[in-house]
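assembly run, all chains below
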Amino acid sequence: MALFTYETKKDTRSGFGAGMEYLSQHNPKVVALCADLIGSLKLEGFIKNSPERFFQTGIAEANMIGISAGLTLGGFIPYATTFANFGTGRVYDQIRQSVAYSGKNVKICCSHAGLTLGEDGATHQILEDIGLMKMLPGMVVINPCDYNQTKAATIAIAEYEGPVYLRFGRPVVPVFTPEDQKFEIGKAVHLVDGTDVTILATGHLVWEAIQAAEALLEKGIKAEVINIHTIKPLDVQAILASVKKTGCVVTAEEHQYNGGLGDSVAQYLAMNHPTPMEFVGVNDSFGESGKPAELMEKYGLNAEAIVAKAIKVMARK
Amino acid sequence: MQTQEIQKISSQVRRDILRMVHGCQSGHPGGSLGCTDLLVDLYFNTMNLKTDAAGKVVFDMDGKNEDLFFLSNGHISPLIYSVLARRGYFPTAELATFRKIDTRLQGHPTPHEHLEGIRIASGSLGQGLSVSIGSAQAKKLNGDSSTVFCLMGDGEQNEGQVWEAAMYAPHHKVDNLIAFIDENGQQIDGPTEKVMSNRDLQAKYEAFGWNVMRMDGNDATDIQNTLIKAKAALGQGSPIMIIMKTEMGAGVDFMMYSHKWHGVAPNDQQLQDALAQLEETLGDY
Ligand SMILES: Cc1ncc(C[n+]2csc(CCOP(=O)(O)OP(=O)(O)O)c2C)c(N)n1
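ok done. output:
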């Protein structure tokens, strides 16, 4: 039985583009910047509506972050956009000093995160960005799961005062969350009730977690699935309540084990409620070229991998 | 080597590029086709490469006492892969694996997969000139009198690191280096003039202390002559920058004169139309 259904598949970056288009009409303080990747970031709508509030930086990401920090001083809300590798790792110190340490209201919004950008390969497939960004004091880190949620998150972060990293991707994935949802930063979304194992997933892995829960149900295992769209601040109440009920947990993300959602959950549980735990993620390796689905299978980032880890962790209770 | 022979190889390399990009339906044909004439000249004519007794090229990572080439604009990977294979570094049959899972021919070049001919990863733009300068300095420290070559894009000139490297090389008298800028006037979001104007690249590099030359990067004769001139200017205290005018998509009429084919793969019909314009001179892989 399908726990969730969907009518269309869309890319999360298009959800970002739609959110930006909305902001161009509803929030005159929002300005957008891009480093020679307008099409990939789906910014055409924003630029068409508000050309005077868009700044093309050329292929100069470090400059883009600094310009963004400066733009906040007049009360503007800059959305600095590029691919996830070039918007985080490449410009880490610019973000650290001019944005995070300076407490500036910059929204760093990046597409093509993780393995699912596919053929471009490891130079572009950053799997460390959640870790890099969450380590910065005061930085909010969000990784929405589908088109609708990405759009809602894009709009919601304008209302929050402070630096945010919003991460999304390139492939089309099922659109299964409500169109008119209100996005609350730091508030996990309960998707499936269960008593045997908790699955905490973020980004593209949320849909896979739902598929895993269906497969587990056929084996008589009731998995609880929670969408952790905000990795920082982490919704520890929701996590704690669930693992107290199930007694074990699997995390799932398109990221390294190191520095990812799993590592945040493990740190919290180790200190507050030690619980058997397994990770679905990339285990200390770079990505590579290939089709997105092939890569997700090779690196163990799909529903089957979640099922296997769920069964493994239940045996450890 | 006669320019006619060079042109024959270039025609085959252009076919390889198109077939590789078509085969995985991803990659960057535009810049690859535009820089084909330069890379074929470098690897088949200008560069002094290490070979075995039988004359076959041999690869070792350090590349001591041979000329080295670094591709900074790593997205034109199909070009470097084709040229390396055609030159004999690895079998041309491997070109069919480009960008497919488990391949050594990754979307952007990397030594991570131990592909013969690749010494540094590129793909994140703006880093190759620095690496080339370091490698040129290592040659000097080793008493190795060979030359280091580096290719960058013109959009890539937007990156600040390029200008840090531009400042460093003349300061440290790195005069065993010949770098190129592929001035095709295009980048992803449109013409370079509109996206982020480089203004006068020649004046800029000259002000930084480089010996700047210009050439037509799609004219095999001009490439040969300019490289002879550039090599004669080595060892005189200044690094050399050659700004080469090219046409993105050169060799395929419908891929030229815009940025449209920067990173788009041809469909079946487009591939046929493109291949019809390029003679198969060495046998398709
Ligand atoms: C640091 C970095 N930022 C952005 C990109 C994405 N990107 C790949 S190619 C390209 C345009 C490069 O323009 P140019 O150097 O002129 O090469 P051409 O389009 O002529 O092949 C961009 C922005 C990248 N690869 N690296």
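The mean pLDDT of chain B is 98.

The beta strands of chain B are 68-71, 148-153, 177-183, 186-187, 190-191, 211-216, 240-245.

not gonna interpret more than that til we talk
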